[in-house]
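stage 2 :: seqdesign
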């Protein structure tokens, strides 16, 4: 069977905030340039340019996962009137608290540390935010091809010329079925990787292009999150709570968050550093234990979990960012480590990095040159931008946790007032997660501890909610054996979890990675109509307000109710992809 070849001018890999912001901004820059020339300005117009975004998920936003809080700075630059244009914002941050927790007790910090201050930030679901951004992009002529995972890079003579998408019609064991279709070669003058943390293509290119030479190793946390639907009057819309301590030991990086997502839902999550000493470190278990703390239990009592997801977070900071360019290639967003670990925020940085990449791509289009020499300007743009300044200010943040939380508190406090300089110096070395991890016998001389069960109440609620959606054949949802099977299944994935797991299109089964068994989908074509174009048409209508809308724009009066219904619909989808989403939902 012949391999399809698609040709684009600029392609963005990943329809997260980075890829979509980049595509939107590039389309805007070209349109403005051509309009000014038509109005008499000197120069030559840029001929029709094909801009594509390739997304592995079945729909844009389905693999999106964040806490819910967005610093609006990036979005304000990208689409200044984003609120008037129906951007799905749930609420504005109304209060901000930080708690230090220990088993059975907590202390509210009298002053919220500056990185955790959220005044002026907005509550928005990343899934719906990116769905809305996709509509804006499509209304500007950007092609969005869903169900198109970039599986490997195409490199010719040291130059990145595109990506090859994953094959379709492969059975569980990796054998070709009768419906087999080879992935398409998506070629472009410029490929911009926006795959989120530890991208498949980025990892494949890292060594051959020397992207990480001389950099600190990237270090990851796993963020596990649940959305809880609560009885009326129990959620303080826009309330932000961050926690330190319980259930983590001093030597494990991380903490909890609880965000008031609208009137009826708490978004509750826990971030666990994967550079812990303890090899039995358990991000999923930490969220379940966190929920049993009296302070958290009181907030959740009477509610029920309706969504669950987990995803990696690149925590290494400025010195762990890879080289951001090569011939025919740029890196953006989480793929390139654009994340402020002290604030648990990356959406605004992802947006800004996409915009800066678009500005560089625009220069390259004018020059007709996509060589590394021309693309190097992107790194300067990043360094000179507010995003660069923000990340430089936190450049030693994660390294300060090398000695544990208690020494990190004064050290990071010092850094805040010294523009990022640490009391132990500058440009501090980082350590890959596996380098900090100790041997099981050193941490647990009496042998591996049993997977700790939380209290059998709040965690069981999560398990039984999940069981309804994992479709264990022939088993009723409330069957205890299903819950047990789920605990076993989840503990396989979420205990001692490490983003260094399976390749694109594979899932961890026991100790080995096997090819995903996916329902076959029509291949994405240059028209992007992988589902008959329905998504495309719907998103374009949402963004532009065109006639004959099957669904109303998010800004319409019905939107809050539709959103509440969507939130209330329990959801869980098998994640995977670039090895970062374990079980993910678009929220
Ligand atoms: C639990 C948690 C809480 C967080 N809370 C916040 C918060 O409150 N505020 C905040 O600002 N940030 C938060 N973040 C961080 C934020 O989510 C990320 O920084 C941000 O989403 C990065 O955007 P991105 O576009 O780089 O990547 P992503 O949002 O990860 O998007 C990447 C996209 O690329 C797709 N993709 C991946 N690989 C491929 C491939 N090979 N081919 C095709 N498509 C591919 C994925 O499906 C996905 O749609 C949180 C993160 C986590 C995990």
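stage 2 :: out
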């Amino acid at each position: 069977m012949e391999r399809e070849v698609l040709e684009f001018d600029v392609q963005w890999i990943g329809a997260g905030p980075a890829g979509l912001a980049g595509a939107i901004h590039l389309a805007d820059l070209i349109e403005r340039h051509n309009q000014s020339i038509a109005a008499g300005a000197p120069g030559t117009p840029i001929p029709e340019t094909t801009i594509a975004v390739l997304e592995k998920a079945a729909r844009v936003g389905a693999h999106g996962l964040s806490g819910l809080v967005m610093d609006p700075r990036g979005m304000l630059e990208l689409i200044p009137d984003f609120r008037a244009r129906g951007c799905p914002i749930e609420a504005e941050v109304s209060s901000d608290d930080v708690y230090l927790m220990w088993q059975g007790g907590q202390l509210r910090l009298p002053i919220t540390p500056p990185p955790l201050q959220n005044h002026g930030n907005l509550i928005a679901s990343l899934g719906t935010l990116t769905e809305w951004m996709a509509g804006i992009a499509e209304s500007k002529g950007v092609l969005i091809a869903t169900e198109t995972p970039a599986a490997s890079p195409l490199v010719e003579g040291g130059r990145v010329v595109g990506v090859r998408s994953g094959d379709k019609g492969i059975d569980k064991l990796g054998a070709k079925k009768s419906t087999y279709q080879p992935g398409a070669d998506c070629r472009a003058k410029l490929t911009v990787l926006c795959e989120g943390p530890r991208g498949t293509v980025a990892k494949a290119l890292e060594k051959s292009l020397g992207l990480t030479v001389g950099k600190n190793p990237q270090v990851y946390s796993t963020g596990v999150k649940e959305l809880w639907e609560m009885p009326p009057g129990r959620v303080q819309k826009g309330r932000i709570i961050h926690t330190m301590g319980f259930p983590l030991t001093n030597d494990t990086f991380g903490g909890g968050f609880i965000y008031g997502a609208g009137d009826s839902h708490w978004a509750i999550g826990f971030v666990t550093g994967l550079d812990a000493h303890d090899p039995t470190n358990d991000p999923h278990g930490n969220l379940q234990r966190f929920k049993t703390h009296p302070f958290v239990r009181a907030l959740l009592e009477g509610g029920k979990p309706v969504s669950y997801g987990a995803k990696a977070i690149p925590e290494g900071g400025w010195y762990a960012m890879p080289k951001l360019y090569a011939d025919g290639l740029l890196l953006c967003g989480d793929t390139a480590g654009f994340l402020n670990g002290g604030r648990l925020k990356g959406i605004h940085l992802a947006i800004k990095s996409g915009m800066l990449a678009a500005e560089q791509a625009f220069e390259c289009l004018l020059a007709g040159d996509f060589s590394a020499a021309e693309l190097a300007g992107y790194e300067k743009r990043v360094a000179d931008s507010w995003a660069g300044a923000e990340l430089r200010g936190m450049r030693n943040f994660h390294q300060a946790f090398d000695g544990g939380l208690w020494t990190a508190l004064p050290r990071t406090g010092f850094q805040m007032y010294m523009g990022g300089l640490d009391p132990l110096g500058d440009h501090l070395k980082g350590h890959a997660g596996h380098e900090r991890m100790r041997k099981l016998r050193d941490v647990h001389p009496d042998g591996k501890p049993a997977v700790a069960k939380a209290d059998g109440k709040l965690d069981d609620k999560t398990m039984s909610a999940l069981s309804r959606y994992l479709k264990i054949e022939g088993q009723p949802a409330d069957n205890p054996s299903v819950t047990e099977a789920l605990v076993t299944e989840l503990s396989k994935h979420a205990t001692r979890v490490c983003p260094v797991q399976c390749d694109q299109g594979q899932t961890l089964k026991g100790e080995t990675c096997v090819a995903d068994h996916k329902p076959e989908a029509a291949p994405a074509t240059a028209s992007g109509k992988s589902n008959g174009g329905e998504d495309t048409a719907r998103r374009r209508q949402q963004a532009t307000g065109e006639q004959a809308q099957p669904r109303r724009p998010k800004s319409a009066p019905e939107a809050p109710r539709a959103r509440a219904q969507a939130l209330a619909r329990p959801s869980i989808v098998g994640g995977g992809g670039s090895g970062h989403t374990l079980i993910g939902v678009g929220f």
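stage 3 :: structure notes
- The chain has 17 helices and 24 strands.
- Residues 17-38 form the longest helix (22 residues).
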